Automatic annotation (TrEMBL):
SUPFAM superfamilies: Lysozyme-like. This is Transglycosylase SLT domain-containing protein. Pfam families: SLT. It comes from Nocardia terrae. Residues 17-89 form the Transglycosylase SLT domain. Coiled coil: none annotated. InterPro entries: Lysozyme-like_dom_sf, Transglycosylase_SLT_dom_1.
Length: 92
């Protein structure tokens, strides 16, 4: 993330992982509005496929369930939307 200028601390990432997936890299949310629209949130930081594809970080896997790729894409998205994953305290 640092190489790509994506801000985020361990504490901010950890806090959001615990809330979003409980630390399960295979987590998938089949019950929210995204799931109802056919694009469920997936992985450690519960990213939907279009967001993962739009904010994918070069050098990481294209597998949304890959922990590094999921974290990097989610933090990249959060940096564009909120300034940093550290500024996210609820579902994003």
């Amino acid at each position: 993330m640092n190489q790509h200028g994506i801000p985020g601390s361990y504490d901010g990432i950890f806090r959001n992982i615990q809330r979003e997936s409980g630390g399960n890299p295979q987590a998938i949310n089949l019950y929210d509005s995204n799931a109802a629209a056919g694009i469920p949130s997936k992985g450690l930081l519960q990213v939907i496929d279009p967001t993962f594809q739009a904010y994918h970080v070069d050098g990481t896997s294209w597998d949304i369930y890959d922990p590094v790729a999921n974290i990097a894409a989610a933090c990249n998205y959060a940096s564009h939307r909120y300034g940093s994953i550290d500024n996210v305290f609820s579902a994003y």
